[in-house]
Amino acid sequence: MSDLHLGQHISRQFNEELEDVRSKVLHMGGIVEEQLANALRVLVNDESELARIVIDADAIVNSLEVEIDEECTRIVARRQPAATDLRLVMTVSKTINELERIGDEAKRVAKMSRKDMDGVLQDDVRVELAHMGELVREMLRQVLDAFARTDVDTAVLVVKADAKVDKRYKKIIKQLIDRMRDEPDAVPAVMKIMWAVRSLERLGDRCQNIAEHIIYMVLGTDIRHIKLDDVLAEIEAQSELE
Amino acid sequence: MSDLHLGQHISRQFNEELEDVRSKVLHMGGIVEEQLANALRVLVNDESELARIVIDADAIVNSLEVEIDEECTRIVARRQPAATDLRLVMTVSKTINELERIGDEAKRVAKMSRKDMDGVLQDDVRVELAHMGELVREMLRQVLDAFARTDVDTAVLVVKADAKVDKRYKKIIKQLIDRMRDEPDAVPAVMKIMWAVRSLERLGDRCQNIAEHIIYMVLGTDIRHIKLDDVLAEIEAQSELE
Q1: Interchain contact, A62 vs B224, CB within 8 Å
Q2: Separation of alpha carbons A151 and A154, rounded Å
Q3: Cα–Cα distance measured from residue A194 to residue A46, given in angstroms and rounded to the nearest whole number
Q4: I need a labelling partner for A192 at 20 to 30 A (CA). Which of A232, B152, B159, B175 fits?
Q5: Per-residue pLDDT tens digits for B46-104
C-alpha cells in the first residue's frame, strides 16, 4: 500500500510537490517527537532545564504548520488534484494541525512541571507517569510511521493503543486525587501534575485523530465517528477486495 | 464584506453548493450552541436532567461534520475552486472540526456535572461559573455570526474575548484549589468541577480558533501564530486599501 500515491501522476513536478509536502510533515513530526521526549524528561526525571528547549521549538513547529498549510492550498489551487491526491492533501492539512497541538500539549507538560515540584511527585506516581509517557511516545512514533508508509495496519494499532493510555490516565488521576485528600497542603503542586497528565491524555487523543485521518486517506471512509469494531470490519472487507 | 463570496461565480450551481455548505455549518453551529447552553444549565443550575439531551445531540453533530466535510471534498474535486472559494471551503472544513470538538467539550461539561455534586458548588464559585459560561456562550454566538456574515471585525472581537475567559478561568481554578485545601473530603467532587471548568476554557480557545480561520479566509493571512496587535495592524492596512 505504500506506493499508493506514487507513480500515478501525469506530472513529475506534481509528484515532487506531494513528496515535498510529505517529507515536511515528517520533519515537523520529528520536532514534535523531540518536544514530547524532552517534556517527559522534565516531568518524570525533573530535568527542568529542558523545558526551555521544548518551549523554543514551538515557534519552529508553528511556522512549519503555516508553511505546509499554504503549500497544500497552493497545490490544490494549481494542480486541481483528483480524489486520491486531494485526500492526501486534506489529510496533510489536518495532520499538521494535530501535530501543532501535540506540540502545544508537550509545551504545557514542560511548563507545568518546572516549578515548586520538590518532593511532590511520589515514586508510585512517577512510575505510572513514565509508563503513560512511553505509551504516548510510542503512539506518536507509530502514527508518524503510519503516515510515512501510508500504512493502515499501523494506524489501526494507534487507534487501539489509545484505550491503554486512557486506562493508565484514570489510574494516575485516582492516585493524585487520593494524594490531595491525604495531604491538603500539596494540592496546588499536585494540581500542576494533574494538568500535565491531562495534557498527556489529550496528546494520545490527537495521535488517534491523526491515525483516523490516515485511515480515511487510504480507505476513503470517514471513521471518525464509527466504532472501532466496524472500522476493522471495513478494513478487512477492503483488503479482501485487493 | 458580507458579499465577498457571492455573485462572483460563473456557475449558479456552484454558488448554490457553497451556500448550502455555509447554511449547513450554521445549522451545525446552532445545535452546538444549544448543547453549550444546556451543559451550562446542568453545571450552574444543577438541571442534571438536561445532560442526556447534550449527550444525545452529539451523534447529530458528528454526522453533520462528516457530511459537510465530504461535501467540501466533493466541491473541491468537482469545481476546482480558485483562491477565494478554495479558502472558504478549507475554512469550512476546519470550522466544523472545531465545532464538533466544542460539542465534545459541552458533553464533558454536562457529564461531569451530573453526579455526586450535592452541596459541593459554593455560591461564590457558582456565580463565577455563570459569568464564565456567559462569556463562552457569547464567544460562540459571535463567532457563528462572524462566519455567517464573513465579518472580520466580529471575528477580531472573539479573538480578543478569549483573554477575558482566561482571566475568569484562573480565578475559578484558584477558588477551587483553595476549596480542596480547606476541605479534603470534597476533593473528588471538586475535581469534577475542575474538569468542567477546563472544558469551558478549551471551548473558548476553539471559538478563538474559528475566529482565526475566518480572518484567514477573508484576509488570506494566516494569523494563527501572530500576535494580536500585529493582526489588528494587518486588518487596518487592508481596510485602507479598500
Answers
A1: yes
A2: 6
A3: 16
A4: B159
A5: 888 999 999 999 999 999 999 999 899 888 888 888 778 888 898 999 999 999 999 99
Neighbours of A106 (CB within 10 A): 31
The answer to whether the CB atoms of B225 and A69 lie below 8 A apart is no
pLDDT at B18 over 60: yes
A3 min Cα distance to partner chain B (Å)? 22
Pull the grid cell for residue A43.
516531568
Secondary structure (DSSP) of B58-107: HHHHHHHHHHHHHHHHHHHHHH---HHHHHHHHHHHHHHHHHHHHHHHHH
**Residue the block writes with cell 471534498:** B73
Q: Which residue of B has its CA nearest to A68?
A: B222
Question: Does some domain include residue B2?
Answer: no
Q: Is B23 on the interface with A (CB under 8 A)?
A: no
Which CATH number is B130's domain given?
1.20.58.220
Predicted-complex ipTM score: 0.82
Q: Does A75 reside within a domain? A: yes
Within a domain: B216: yes
